Amino acid sequence: MVFWSLACASHGLAVSVSTLALSRFLLGIGEGGGFPAATRAVAEWFPVQERSTAMGIINAGTALGMIVAPPLIALVLGAANWRWVFFLTAGLGLAWTIWWRRDYFPPERHPRLGDAERREIEPVFGAAAGTQEELPWLHLLRFRQTWGVVIAKFLSDAAWYFYLFWLPKYLYDARGFDIKAVAAFAWIPPAAAGVGCLCGGWLSSWLLRQKLPLDHARKIALGASAFLMPLILFVPRVPVAWAIALFSFAYFGQQSWSTLVMVLPADIYPRPAVGGVAGLVGFGGAMGGVVFGQAVGYLLDHGFGYGLVFALAGSFHVVAFAVICAAIPRIEPLALAPRGA
């Protein structure tokens, strides 16, 4: 977070396109550690029946940020120049880091954890008593479960990055929106995404409380999220109000799906491996966004139109769900033999 905050602040010092591009590159490097760290914290603090709800709350924070950032940025721009947007954001990041470093502890070392709270999260202490050996990435890649989640994230985030970065352009090009019209509707899909985070996490936790096995609870919620996504295929064929509604369904389903995929490393791997697997999963998602973003540009430049693009984006989550089911026949803790055994 310190690295990310300093990279953010560097935007305000940019004096050319090249220095701004360097700042963007560094920001991306720093941002990559956020969700792996969040997944590790969820694994440390929450029993299995609460993990997806906790991850849903964390993930909903990203949607909240997408909603509140534009008006806050407008306030800063009204009082100062654009550089202060980055300086103030960096300051908030550094302040958060100080608070986190001072107050966060794993539960087994937390100085203010009471007896009642210890009993409530007793299962996490048992998990902490297991293997504590750190596992390198190459070792984690020996397991098909790792490849299954990474490939699924590659596919689903390909669609997600398309929705994030191409929705305004689609509204400009295909629907005739101007910047004011885009701004008027821009908050609706992110709001749906936040609700999706909460609903996806809650559903899986609720299924576990109904005594369903972990495998069923996760895959039912993942499947329900994935099979919402083909609705996006109808976007080019419906009036604009319905198109916004379908985009909102897609944002809802994607973030419900994302919440559940991000909690899978905590479900499957021992605690020391969770951060590493989550990092590999995040890498897969980022590469999916890069590859499909380039493919979308090529398809549109060569006259294929948005219909084919939406058809591809609408199918990726269904294929990703099939990949998870094939690579992880049963979602359950993985028994890792000590290295060298």
Which helices and strands, and how do they pair?
Elements: H1 2-11, H2 17-31, H3 34-45, H4 48-79, H5 83-103, H6 115-120, H7 122-128, H8 137-140, H9 144-175, H10 179-185, H11 188-209, H12 214-226, H13 240-268, H14 271-301, H15 305-327
Helix pairs in contact: 1-2, 1-5, 3-4, 3-13, 3-14, 4-11, 4-13, 9-13, 9-14, 9-15, 11-12, 11-13, 12-13, 12-15, 13-14, 14-15
Explain briefly what this protein structure is.
This protein has 341 residues and is mainly alpha-helical.
The CATH superfamily of the domain at 50-68 and 139-327 is identified as MFS general substrate transporter like domains
Mean pLDDT score: 84
Measured between the Cα atoms of the first and last residue, the distance is 37 Å
CATH architecture label of the domain at 50-68 and 139-327: Up-down Bundle
- Low-pLDDT parts are none
Gross morphology is globular
Query: Rg from C-alpha positions?
Result: 21 Å
Total helices: the number is 15
What CATH calls the topology of the domain at 50-68 and 139-327 is: Growth Hormone, Chain: A
- Main pleated-sheet profile: none
Q: Helix and strand succession?
A: HHHHHHHHHHHHHHH
The percentage of residues in β strands lies in under 5%
CATH class of the domain at 50-68 and 139-327: Mainly Alpha
Structural class: mainly alpha
Helix content: over 70%
Number of strands: 0
